[in-house]
Amino acid sequence: MSTAVIVGGGPNGLAAGLQLARNGVKVQVLEAADTVGGGARSAESLVPGVIHDLCSAFHPMGVGSPFWREIDLGRYGLRWRRPEIDCAHPLDSGETALLFRSITETADGLGADGRRWRAVLGDLARNFDDLGHDLLRPIAHAPVHPFELAAFGPRALLPVSVMARLFRTPAGRALYGGIAAHVYTDFDRPLTASLGLMIAASGHRYGWPVAEGGSGSIIAAVTAALADHGGTIETGVTITSRDQIPAADVVLLDLSPAQAERLYGDRMPPRIRRAYRRHRVGAAAFKVDFAIRGDIPWRDKDCGRAGTVHLGGTFEEIRRAEKLRDRGVLPDRPFVLVGQQYIADPTRSSAGINPIWSYAHVPAGYSGDATQQVISQIERFAPGFRDTIVDMKTTTVPQMAAYNRNYAEGDIMGGANDGLQLLFRPRAALDPYSTGVDGVFLCSQSTPPGPGVHGLCGYHAAESALRHLRRAGDGRRR
Length: 478
Known about the structure:
This protein is α/β, with parallel strands linked by helices. Helices cover 37% and strands 16% of the residues.
């Protein structure tokens, strides 16, 4: 029986282990923390019985992941829960743009921009699964759905700021801008429209659901599936040298390129080592969790029906904030995401106390405190919010980096989403999972298709490792 060691027990490390175990490989996962899960953990971090997600929260790419659907994580206890409104984006004018799973309902609420919203996103939502088959994998492959890909291409090449010109109303532009801001990059850079469009399209295809009981429930289901296929997990194991990694036929690293280079750099081909060293981190997340009594007192009650609320004001304001952040400056009003997961999943609340999840986009490596900026952005659209706070917890950028070694300088996205790095993560190659070291593969979110609790980085890396094992087996037989 072939053997594999997975270093790192995040969603992609577990997915890689699961795919290998399903194919008859004996798998051992080594995780530095006391629990597996990486960015998909949940805990009663403030008030007993009140569950907060520690990083990732909403999962349009998770519920739509072809790998998770193939595994059928529902068999292992995972339940998806959806809010009535997926996302709300309030404006100072009192108007609020609303994103529903239904593209028709969304367009109807956007007035004059409704027709444009359908024109830009309608075909992407209808063809999302076909597009995903080609886009949620390494870029260098023969397309299976070339016509859908060709239709998407001209839009994908545009900067966010150019795509936004298609929308004429403040609400339409703001809604698109808030979704595009998930990319964590300067809106004026080419190709940046692509990820925002895919996030919006995935929402219209699958909604923006949460996992019942917290994002950790996804990990619990994947862990159960891995155990069902004979895989084992050992926690509390910090790997700082490759000499600590047990002997195995293949090793998969759910690590950043920088960590992989520190472990195996002296054995990598020089061009790959240089590529790993050049891999750039992206912007950082400054996270603030709240436990509140009752609900947030939003000025517009529709915000209280939404799982996610984007706080950034107009498109132009978000664009300026993201540009300042990209230049290393914390804006007075940074873009803030607020999560009200309990709206869809009341099991996260207790005795009238509800969990609120939020983070602000701040510069990479930011060492200051943005707590008041986050609170001020919420108060801007929900006067009296401060009075509802029972307790709160701030996770600074250095603390985020310490929480997960893959989050260098507070970057939770696995690297900057701009330039050629947007297309080629972590390097330009037919097999971007190969480290150039025989039998060693990278499987983290720094590989295609990038961030999200979808497991596809691990799945594709495992497929690369299985091809290696088959070639090695053929060689031994010859």
